[in-house]
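[SOLVED] Need 3D model of a two-part complex

Original post:
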Amino acid sequence: MGWKTSGESWGTRIGVILAVAGSAVGLGNFLRFPGNAAQNGGGAFMIPYFIALLLLGIPLCWAEWTMGRYGGLRGFNSAPGIFVALTKNRYSRYLGAVALLVPLIIYMYYVVIEAWCLGYAYFYLTGELMKGAEPQAYSDFFGGYVGSGSDGFLYETGRGRVFYFLIFTFFLNFVLIYRGVSKGIETFCKFALPIMAICAICVLIRVFTLGTPNPDLPDQNLVNGLGFMWNPDFEKLKDPRTWLAAAGQIFFSLSVGFGIILNYASYLKRKDDVVLSSLTASSMNEFFEVCLGGLITIPAAFMFLGLSAGQFTGSTFGMGFVALPNVFAMMPFGRFFGFLWFFMLFLAAITSSLSMLQPVIAFFEEGLGLKRHASVAFLMLITALGGGFVVYFSKDLKALDTMDFWVGTMAIFVLAMIQSFIYGWVLGIDKGEREAHVGAHLRIPRFVQYILKFVTPVYLVSIFVGVLWFSSRDYFESLTKNRVAGMSVAFITIVFLFLLLLTHIAGKRWETEGRFAEIENEK
Amino acid sequence: MQPIGWLLMIVSVGSVLTLVSFCLFRVLTLPPIDVEDLNIAPLEIDTHDRRDMD
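Solution:
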């Protein structure tokens, strides 16, 4: 059957791989992973980590790539349409609204963090962040910069420096997304990823050539720094939270359950490979995470801060924006390496945030019939409202934290469970396997299909219940006790209802165009 | 650093480096995409021949 497609497609094979890898590589690779590992058994953490990669991460990526291309070949680039194509049920489009909500809400606070990174890179260039050895100076600087002291702090005159970086970052994202999949996202990622790798390798070489930076403290050396990160504590493997943290890390790191891979893969052509491409993108993400993140962050922090580096392992922002600036200030040529580090984090964040906009843009275009400039303007308006909300309610970063938990943690599990169910039980593993191998340059072993059908859903449900059990109590309590937390959840709910309404309108349009009938009549 | 720490680090980093090298090697050594797979319209040359010429 001759399906009408959007006409957009990737320019090159390596381009799509770099775009997906760029989407996956973010702050979590360099800040969250090392902290997670150091906190949960060091080297022992790698055992549940690699098990989760093999049972959860790589199989789910293969499934998402396959489903995305399947939907794209039937003329749909957004999750609501792709779900209809996969299930042949027009009502499944409402489930696809979750795949619009997740990237949209995450973008609203991610762009703010992105602006922090750009600001820090700039402050290294000007030398403003070289504040000496006192840790409190960095904590105070970060608090003032992000306005964590009180709500509306950054809107007061003279305190909103972050806005310059935020506005620049915000528009850069939309300029790139306006240029389209190939000329915008792909071209940017082709330059950004190699530059990120070069910056990170430079910082790695710097850390590995530091030896014993302070001769008065001979224990704070490179080998002990590596030991602080990698020496195993096998007792931690008996704690279910270690397994939960490892599975969660793999899940967030590979961008599974964000609805992004579905969208990106939908621009592939029939004979384009999905199996090798997916594995390559995943392995590139692992390279940035294990080989760079795992060898730089914690060893560097230990070499300058000693055992007190341990207090930052539980906090991504504490490690990234307080501990590491403190480290760079004490490091020889630290100003230059601090700039390289935060510029690399900015690039990593921007390749991720671009991927959060594209699924929603695709939906506005194909679902509502908007032209590119109209859909970009509409999305700018929505995300500016959300970004403004996050920046205004900055006290203790409560709005950001609440959105991150309910959408950036819980909703992505829900979406991954939906996708896993559709692949394993609706599309079916036999058909899924056939689809995956069209144009494939690598074969997926048969047992992986059984993992996708039986193991992955159980694994996902277990993690979901585990996160609810161990982490959600405080968030539930804060809904009633903290006004900003309640407002943030109300904001998320309003956006979700709005997306459901748009999905309903899109469905009516597709029905009128006869696209549902085409899908439902397909053999 | 303990020997088991070294071992875990080397195995972890080594496994990832091996996997990413294998994948990149495979991707970069694949034959170029066939011309018919590109979104380029087939070459059409109007020769001005007419079927009813003769």
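Edit: Residues 22 and 44 of chain B are 41 Å apart (CA to CA).
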